Amino acid sequence: MIKRGKNALFEIVNQTKAWEGTIRLVAEKAGSLKSLSEGIEEVVFTGCGSALNVAWVLAPTFQYYTGIKARAVPSADCVFFPDTIFTTGSPTLVVPISRSGDTTETVEACKSAHARGMKTLSITCNLESQLARMSTESLVLEPASEKAVVTTQSVTSMVLCGQMIAAIVSKNGELIDQLKSLPAIGQTIIEKSHALGREIGENESIVKFAFVGNGPYLGVAKECQLKIKEMVVLPSDSYPVLDFRHGPKSNVDEQMLVTVLMSDSAREAEIAFIKDMKALNGVLLVLCEKANSEVVGIADYLVEVHSGLPEFVRPILYLPVVQFLSYYRSLLQGQDPDSPRNLTYYVALEGAMGN
Amino acid sequence: MIKRGKNALFEIVNQTKAWEGTIRLVAEKAGSLKSLSEGIEEVVFTGCGSALNVAWVLAPTFQYYTGIKARAVPSADCVFFPDTIFTTGSPTLVVPISRSGDTTETVEACKSAHARGMKTLSITCNLESQLARMSTESLVLEPASEKAVVTTQSVTSMVLCGQMIAAIVSKNGELIDQLKSLPAIGQTIIEKSHALGREIGENESIVKFAFVGNGPYLGVAKECQLKIKEMVVLPSDSYPVLDFRHGPKSNVDEQMLVTVLMSDSAREAEIAFIKDMKALNGVLLVLCEKANSEVVGIADYLVEVHSGLPEFVRPILYLPVVQFLSYYRSLLQGQDPDSPRNLTYYVALEGAMGN
Known about the structure:
By secondary structure, chain A is α/β, with parallel strands linked by helices. Chain A folds into two domains: 6-180, Rossmann fold (3-Layer(aba) Sandwich), CATH 3.40.50.10490; 183-332, 3-Layer(aba) Sandwich (Rossmann fold). Chain A has helices at residues 6-13, 15-28, 30-36, 50-66, 75-80, 104-115, 130-134, 153-169, 173-180, 182-201, 217-232, 267-279, 293-298, 319-332; strands at residues 42-47, 69-74, 92-98, 119-124, 137-140, 208-213, 236-239, 256-261, 283-288, 301-304. In chain A, helix 4 (50-66) packs parallel to helix 8 (153-169). The N and C termini of chain A lie far apart (43 Å). At the A-B interface, helix 4, strand 2, helix 5, helix 11 and helix 12 of A face helix 4, strand 2, helix 5, helix 11 and helix 12 of B.
């Protein structure tokens, strides 16, 4: 008998090896990345599902470091609503993101970009894929490919890949050094996160989940939400931190885990938010660089990453604890984290894209 | 005894009067809107909660009609992560949106824009508000102001306001005529939607909700999700249509109402999606201009608006049925739609914005 979730667990525990491979691989392409980005006025990161969450982390990160406008867009909108995204006369680089490299609407988004004369730089984990073959340039993260249906190490690696691109394009040597430190720091975090993620995952009094983050952390929050939806099949939300106070907070009670992905820039507002959620009896998981005594006192669960890294570098360090949490809750509920119900390894849409 | 939800019901039923007032009011400001938009290279629509959902409808609509880049951004990101949104040397107009005009982070976003030398055009329903006083120009939709905590007519009116701005800036007379036809068409839709919304709302076998839409309909889907969260306090999601197939669909079963907000551009893919959801036993509510026989056969509930209007004009016609649905389910559950638990008329954050 094969143990349920064997692949997912292996991929969560060992993901820093994929990160190392990713850093090496992107660094080797530095020359072509620099020339590809010359004269570019806007970058559009596009994908579906987890890959769209990666785009949500990368767009603010890329614009922050390079000063080049960047946005995250669902692949289908590039195909069906291109005039809401692309403007004429503004040289744009499209970055299609897809683990399989064969997701129908992301492949179509790539074709649509080429038809408009735009260059593309795809991020995928599959060398034999359509995206790898058709894009102007592609970064194929084979060390990050996965056997499980659910994405874990591929997500963190594709984020790291995009961060490396931002560092290379902005010629930011300090950032490259910081990114290179992530695998070693990540290994420690993963070891610390394993037992805690399991403890939270096995707390059956929690039956609904909310993840909140600002700036680049909104994409991480969306990815956490998706892990719960895929592996645990329980109600799960993601919101910008302060937006959660405008309506969605009406759902908070002692059965909801509210996970706060803390930044540096919005730290004060996030601490006020944490107090507010505790007053509503929410169960709090706080992920941060380092907590103050107030947060230590309030948080039910706490991960401090102690990375010494800036907020735009840290996002992938927050994911492992939620990957573990989802994994163990999934097992507890008798599901198979490797192969959740209703899902396939990638989504192909036969004849649904009008071509 | 005051009837629960009296104000919300009045505001849903009579919202086309607010639409008429909105059209008149924006048309009167045509001259100053044209001069305000001269030389602008990007428009940033920003808000929190429902107002952010309005921004999500308006950004693609504005870019589509004007050819000027537009994006929707949470107010807090304008304050805490401005370098992920604004670029130097690109003349930008910021459009802060807030019913009360006093939402803390949206007021701060407005200040932050002014500090960067940008012009602002606020959309609010309150003449005495900070936003109305401080913005470069403001559109104060007093006929759309509300007594209920939950936003209904203010949302549809603020969307219509932004559509009018797009029409004026792009000097699109045909679009203005189309927008002017919305109150009369809307009145018919509201009458048709009332009984159906009540029927769905009182179907207690439905205990979770998903709303999906592409392009400008994603913002509408987000607003539908928020109405459920605020008034009904049950699990509720929103996604781009095809993204829903990447993970979240694992939650679909006969207890989930899947509401599809149909566009024209992605119609074929949306019909394929509808079939897919039915195969998973989801309960389907389809909102569209006109259904084909296949959709008529599959949909459990159907609203055809028969407006003769393009997809970027129709979004507010899809909202009333979900407003009614939320209202009646809220009543059935013994809640007060006028004043949901944990919520206030607007959100003020004391000292949490670091100033």
